[in-house]
Write a structure and sequence with these properties.
This protein is of the alpha+beta class and about 260 residues long. The protein is about 50% helix and about 15% strand. It is built from eleven helices and five strands; from the N terminus they run H-H-H-E-E-E-E-H-H-E-H-H-H-H-H-H. It has a five-stranded mixed sheet with strand order 3-4-2-1-5, sandwiched between helices. Strand 3 and strand 4 form a beta hairpin. Helix 7 runs antiparallel to helix 11. The radius of gyration is 25 Å and the shape is globular.
Length: about 260
């Protein structure tokens, strides 16, 4: 390298002067008082034990509490496994938080793991609060194994049903365009069905609701942008058009229901 080319190279100071300063990261929200949260979990556990003490098998903490993603408004999600059959659900208030408690027969949960689109992802990260004969621990292990196998496949009939339901709610929202409040409500039902269809058609496990927009964007940038725009669209016509674009893109390879006329 000759002297002339060496002199044309920028100096360290010149390079640094071209750098654009990085913005300061936003201040993270104050984390909730974890000891207080744990105390509330203990009170909810004591309530569940009192309700089903005789046939209680295991109590599992699921949701944000199990994922260590607790926020100021997180509730307490408990899965209470019992002997025999049970299909109960109650919501109670513990201090300043809600506790959502579901009672299930542990044999029924084991059977549902084989085909449920939600249970494996819900239970695989569960935190054991109470366990008898390691039944809850074994169930979590089965859920983790089932999760690694992937969700149950979706056949063509189900694909067509998912498409029909999404376009049904879109059409109903269009029918009530002169009643914006009703139309907006129907569009949120459409969005819930759209999210379910996205995960089913792509062969993905359902995620926590707070993670849905980010997860869709990470798997499909175009659909993710449309979904983000749908959620913040300022007018009803804009949201209707956005929803139609979302559905057309998601179901572009799914046929319409058969006609018999």
């Amino acid at each position: 390298m000759d002297a002339e080319s060496t002199n044309t190279l920028p100096t360290k100071e010149e390079l640094q002067s071209e750098l654009v300063p990085l913005p300061e990261p936003p201040e993270p929200p104050e984390p909730p008082n974890e000891p207080a949260y744990e105390e509330i979990v203990g009170l909810a556990l004591r309530h569940a034990k009192g309700r089903r003490g005789g046939d209680l098998v295991s109590v599992l903490l699921v949701g944000s509490g199990a994922r260590r993603a607790v926020t100021a408004h997180s509730d307490i999600d408990l899965v209470v496994l019992v002997k025999g059959q049970a299909d109960g659900h109650e919501i109670i208030r513990v201090a300043d938080r809600m506790a959502d408690i579901r009672y299930w027969g542990h044999k029924d949960v084991e059977d549902e793991l084989a085909y449920s689109p939600r249970l494996p992802s819900l239970l695989r990260k569960a935190r054991i609060l109470h366990d008898h004969d390691a039944i809850g621990a074994k169930l979590i292990e089965r859920a983790s194994h089932r999760f690694r196998q992937g969700p149950p496949p979706v056949n063509m009939n189900e694909q067509i049903r998912l498409k029909a339901e999404c376009f049904h709610w879109l059409g109903k929202a269009q029918d009530f365009a002169d009643k914006p409040a009703t139309a907006q409500y129907l569009l949120m039902i459409f969005f819930e069905d759209f999210v379910t269809a996205f995960f089913r058609l792509r062969g993905l496990w359902l995620t926590a609701p707070v993670d849905v927009p980010r997860f869709i964007s990470s798997r499909d940038g175009v659909l993710g942008d449309l979904a983000d725009h749908f959620l913040v669209a300022p007018t009803l016509p804009e949201r209707l058009n956005c929803g139609r674009d979302m559905a057309n893109l998601l179901f572009k390879d799914v046929p319409n229901p058969a006609r018999i006329d």
